[in-house]
Every structure is written in structure tokens, then in C-alpha cells.
# Entry
Amino acid sequence: MYDIIGDIHGHADALTALLKELGYSQRDGVYGHPQRRVVFLGDFVDRGPKIRETLEIVRGMVETDAALTVMGNHELNAMAFHTPHPDRAGEYLRPHTAKNEKQHSQTLAQLNESQLSDALAWFRRLPMWLELDGLRAVHACWDDAAIGQIESQLQQAGGLTDEVLTSACVPGHSLFPSVEVILKGREMQLPEGFSFQDKDGHARTKTRTRWFSNAQGHTFGSYAMTDPLACDVPLSDTICAASRPYGATEKPVFLGHYWLKETTPKRLAKNVACVDYSVAKGGFLCAYRWDGEQELRDENFVFVK
# Structure
């Protein structure tokens, strides 16, 4: 059985406390459990005070088969930040803007050159999703079409090569929309005149959606995933027609990414659960203890504050 853990962002102390709460203990310096495994949902780097320690814990568990993991958008961002752009001399796949440098600054400050190079090489080997016996795991959004396209290109290239990474990270390239959906979630353009400030204070006119729900009958405000959006305008026919809700009979799917703010975790749907409760923004690190159930239960969330 699995314990699914959300975004850590360098908060290694919270991670060790949560692992102990879940009954994991160290043996030869690596956390493990006699009957269970962890599924990590990515976003190990940036923001927090103990990024190196977080990577050591997670990698140790993955490499001893005590855990599985998927890639988060911050791992993708890190690879893109350090990969030269093939067509623009002196530039990188992720532009070195003030905003991007600030977001990545703690990783740069806490890892030396060798540690960073080793981490980036490990990120290349991480899957973007997991299809397991009885459950699914992805950082932001399960989308069969996007997964199929990504899988096809990875198989053709033999892995996450520089060419595939470029296609995944540069707008206008073939993989960019699919990877955006899987690692960052589906978004919708707000009606003219509406905007909001995100968690970092940036003005936004697009918002992440409750992609797992049927869009019919929603307003822009009610279909927004987490953003504080006062917009009672009904969704457009275009958005409703394009929505692909997660089927009620599909396997349970577990997500991170969304910086949920509730003080007590709860499922998003009968078979959808997010375990990112904003540990890097004053929240807490969260897990879901899965024992094979196909209808998820709120009482199975475990967290430490």
C-alpha cells in the first residue's frame, strides 16, 4: 500500500516529521516501512531552507525502492533554467528573468555546483506520471491525450533529451501544451476586465481550473481551482465544450501543485485528492494513506503542522 506525499519545497524537517507520523523509520540512513511505500508528487526544490537534505531523503528512498516519485514543475523549471536555448546564444530554455531567478534562488544558494549537476541529472530520469495497480499519480492534472503525446515523444527519443526538453519548455513547440497541462494544470482565460493576484503577488488573467469536474453550470469563479476569484460570469460554451472531466469510475488520482489553503485536508472528488497544503507558504505537509480503496476518504489524510 502507498502513502502519497505532496510538495515539499525544501522543508526536510516537516518531511521527516511526517514520515515518522506515518510509521517510517531510518535504517542505514534511509527511511522505510515494512509494509508500505511512499509516492512523492514532486516539487522538492526551491523556496525552503533544506533543499539538499530533502533531495537526500527522497532520493535515498527512491533508490532503495522505499518510494516512487513523479516530476514536479519545479524540477522541470530547474532543468530548463540550466539548459541553454538551442536557437538563442547566451539564453536558456527558462529565461533568467528576475521572477524566475527569485523563484530558483534558494536552490542555487543551497546546492554547490556538483550537487546541482547531480540533482539535474536525476530529474531527467523522473517520470511525469505513474499508472499503478489501483491508483494514479501526477503533479497537477491527469490528461490521457497529453500523456499519450508525451509518452510517444519520450519513447522515440529514448528519454528526456535536450531536444525533448526544448519541445516541452518553449512555447510554440509540440510538447509545450501537453507538459503544461500535466505539470501545471489546465488554465482558462478570464473574461475581459477580470484579474487576480497569485500567491507571489503577480497579476494574472488566467486561472487554473477544477479540471476533474464537469464545467457545465459553473461560473469562472466556481470553476477556478484555488485562486481567490470573485467572478460570477458563467463559463463560455467554448470552455465547457473543451472540458474533459475525470471519470467517476476511473482509478483514484493523486495530485500536488495547487497550494490548497484549508486547515483540514479533504478530497476534491470521490476519486481525486490533492495533497499540497502549502508547506512553503505557512501551511503544512500532507499525505494520503491509501489502502486500496477506490472511493477516497477524508479521514485517510495525515499531516503535521
Summary: Residues 2-304 form a domain with the Purple Acid Phosphatase; chain A, domain 2 fold (CATH 3.60.21.10).
